[in-house]
Amino acid sequence: MPNSTSKRRLWRDVRVFDGLRTLPEPMAVVTEGTRIASLVAMRDADENLVEGCSDMGRGGVMTPGLVDCHTHLVFGGGRADEFEARLEGASYEEIARRGGGILSTVRATREASEEELLALARPRLEALIADGVTTVEIKSGYGLDVASELKMLRVARRLGEELPVRVVTTLLGAHALPPEFKGDSDGYIDLVCREMVPAATQAGLADAVDVFCEKIAFSVAQCERVFVAAEAHGLPIKAHAEQLSNLGGTAMAARHGALSADHIEYLDAAGIAAMREAGSVAVILPGAFHTLRETQQPPIAALRKAGVPMAVATDANPGSSPLFMPTLMLNLACTLFRLTPQEALAGMTAHGATALGLAGQGRIREGAEADLCLWNVESPAGLAYAVQPGRLRQRLFQGELTHGN
Ligand code: NIG
Ligand code: FE
Q: I need a surface site. Which of 109, 290, 319, 339 has the fewest CB within 10 A?
């Protein structure tokens, strides 16, 4: 009997979306241990390939495991009251200015214990996993003091230990100004730079550092100070930028070599050029656009023309995107922003991985990690076309079957 690390599995006659494109012919795919061992056209599959494999069946659409590169899954409380207030006409910015929004989640998150936060976040992450996610980024940003930010990051790390998914953590200390620093945003940025970034680094809890560059959050100059601190600690950076207005945060982040700039509805030509120059990924978040009933479209056609890779993510969070379904984001990215289904899928596989500093992951090719999804859909485009939970037939994480049989 082969042991589990050498176990060979064979899928026949699958349509493969390889992370960048749909392969033209039906394929045979073999995994061995934690890796993809072979990827060959069906008509070239011979006896040698099949030798010693367990038969995983025939047909279906295979994609890399989905990569959700932007989430805020760890939080206390809920914001249904804010949802209702926005439906009655209050804007996201107005609610934030009167101490609601992100700050209401900060209050609930500070009060919650690590165990409580873990118990709350677990079913959210299980929902993403059931919809095909094998890699997820999770941000802090609802603690806004050193102890509470570290508490959130520890919860994120524990989720990755307890569930069959790769968790990448991001310190988002500069998400909002906590009430105890009212009137002293520079003082708070001092705390982020001098205490939070060093503490998260020393504890090994942050894989990257993020900021919210916006009028209701932090200025370009303040965000740049956070990036300088991150760089001094060897951490890659990214930014929530150009979501509600154009401040130039994206161009500044790109000059610092940002992995990604996220939201970017208000991004201008200079920002796009800076991203192209830096090789930053544009993270498109249609869930927040939809939830906040925004009207300013991200500059998709210009990003496409410039060759800036576009990722698509849920932005799952209690305020601007309480939507915990990655395949819904594929649909919204196409319907709201006119991405092609292939672009949307690449955004949640290969380009999502690049946005996390994992370039080369989120692909189906020989030698790649066997993080795979097999779907009951007619074609890869079918995943974006219909919104229908339960289409995941099989899921492999690091070569282990975690869903289906
Ligand atoms: O990505 N834009 C800022 N931050 C989050 C929203 C967080 C919240 O509203 O709780 C976002 O949309
Ligand atoms: Fe976000």
A: 290
Direct distance between the N- and C-terminal alpha carbons of the chain, in angstroms, rounded to an integer: 19
Say if residues 282 and 261 touch (Cβ distance below 8 Å): yes
Pairing of strands 372-375, 392-397: antiparallel
* pLDDT value of residue 1: 42
Confirm or reject CATH 2.30.40.10 for domain 8-64+363-403, answering yes or no. yes
Report which of 194, 296, 306 is spatially closest to residue 246, judged by C-alpha positions.
Answer: 296
Give the C-alpha separation, 128 to 123, whole Å: 9
Q: Which residues of the chain have pLDDT under 70?
A: 1-5
* Per-residue pLDDT, 308: 98
Burial bucket for residue 402 (CB in 10 Å: 0-12, 13-18, 19+): middle
| 335 close to 328: Cβ distance less than 8 angstroms | no
Q: What is the pTM of this model?
A: 0.97
CA of 146 from ligand 1 middle (Å) equals 20
SS3 261: strand
The predicted pLDDT at position 48 comes to: 87
Dist. CA 400 → ligand 1 center (Å): 34
User: What residue type is assigned to position 368 of the chain?
Assistant: A
* Residue among 389, 393, 281, 403 nearest 327 (CA): 389
* Ligand 1 atom nearest to 321, measured from its CA: 12
Where are the chain's structural domains? Answer: 8-64+363-403, 66-355
Q: Which atom of ligand 1 is nearest the CA belonging to 318?
A: 10
Q: Closest ligand 1 atom, CA of 243? A: 2
The CATH number for 66-355, chosen from 3.20.20.140, 3.40.50.300, 3.40.50.1100, 3.90.1150.10, is 3.20.20.140
From the list 269, 270, 274, 332, the residue with the least C-alpha distance to 302 is 269
Show the ligand 1 pocket: residues with CB < 6 angstroms. 72, 101-102, 105, 212, 240, 243, 288, 315, 317-321
Ligand 1 atom 12, closest CA: 320
pLDDT attached to residue 376: 98
Asked if 135 and 166 touch (Cβ cutoff 8 Å), the reply is yes
Q: Burial-class residue 314 by CB neighbours within 10 Å (0-12, 13-18, 19+).
A: buried
